Amino acid sequence: MHAGHHYSLKEVLIWTRREIVGVFVLGLVPTVLYVALDWHWLAMPWVPIALVGTATAFVVGFRNNATYARAWEARQIWGAIVNASRTWAVLVRDFVRPVPGDEPAFADARQQLVYRHLAWLTALRFQLREPRAWENMAQPANAEYSQLYRVAERLTALPDELRPYLTPADAGYVLSKKNRATHLLGLQAKQLKELAEDDHLEKFRYLELTKMLTNLYDQQGKCERVKNFPYPRQFATVNMFFVRMFVCLVPFGLLQEFEKLGEHFVWLTIPFSMLVSWIFLMMEKIGEGTENPFEGNANDVPITALVRTIEIDLRELLDEAEIPAALQPMNNILL
Questions:
Q1: Residue-wise pLDDT tens for the chain (335 aa)?
Q2: Cα–Cα distance measured from residue 46 to residue 55, given in angstroms and rounded to the nearest whole number
Q3: For the chain, first and last CA: distance in Å?
Q4: Is residue 157 part of a domain?
Q5: Could you give the CA distance from residue 231 to residue 66 in angstroms, rounded to a whole number?
Q6: Would you say residue 333 lies in a domain?
Q7: For residue 155, is it within any domain?
Q8: What is the pTM of this model?
């Protein structure tokens, strides 16, 4: 997400410069033909074009509302994950007796349960950053802008990230599976059952902790729903066709309108058609850049930073001395 006040005009113009060049050519060619070659038959009445523009505005507005709803849903899900993580750590700390864990790297079973939760968060964020065919990060403008910030999941390997939180046996088991996050919660359930059978966890408290695991499974499923079900392609296709059709028609409708003001005013067709077209193309790009909130776009939900925030809170709840620092924005972008 953008962590500053707003995007600068320079950033916006650079991000949309390909569209600016395109609408400049679309405005220049018919204007030159209209003036230099007297091809007045190119001019079209503005009213039908305005009707197309009105329909296009409705479609673009519908798309942007829907994509914003997807982004806001994703943020709400991760807000629930933050709260559930803190609750999990507190319940584990207070409900589980401080029995030794099965690995010397962990002080006791409580630390092991909390660290495995951090491993679940890590595996989940890596899964959510995996590319999908319908995502937009491969587009030239987005690929260029992504050089200004850091997507941690593309620069590090999951096995290296999981190593501090898991035993070698757990890490080997989890990395052999496709949905690593699901199996990490399964390991949590297995250890809770063993603790309850060994009388290290009272039955009522065991049930409360398993309810928390159910909640975490639910939040993971919600993340996967947003990640794996795109904004419907039929709506995205109609939006794209409508915007491009309107952009192509705009200069032809403005020729006669500006000629009414005087012979030389017809050249104003170029800047004004560029402005109108750029607004619609910009809104389309904004909607497109919002519809996949986990892909690594500059406007995504900052799941990497949220996971670090959770880790800081959970380690402090365990009274650990070495606490990692919070992630900071890079060029105002926080992921």
A1: 988 888 988 999 999 999 999 999 999 999 999 998 989 998 999 999 999 999 999 999 999 999 999 999 999 999 999 999 999 999 999 998 887 655 556 778 899 999 999 999 999 999 999 999 999 988 899 889 889 899 999 999 999 999 999 999 999 999 999 999 999 999 999 999 999 998 889 999 999 999 999 999 999 999 999 999 999 999 999 999 999 999 999 999 999 989 888 878 999 999 999 999 999 999 999 999 899 999 999 999 999 999 999 999 999 999 998 899 999 999 999 98
A2: 14
A3: 6
A4: yes
A5: 8
A6: no
A7: yes
A8: 0.92
Backbone angles phi, psi at 13, to 5 degrees: -65, -40
Tokens 């939180």 found at: 165
Neighbours of 99 (CB within 10 A): 14
Helix, strand or coil for residue 162?
helix
Total tally of structural domains belonging to the chain: 1
* CA-wise closest residue to 266 among 253, 278, 279, 257: 257
Look up the domain containing 42 and give its range.
9-317
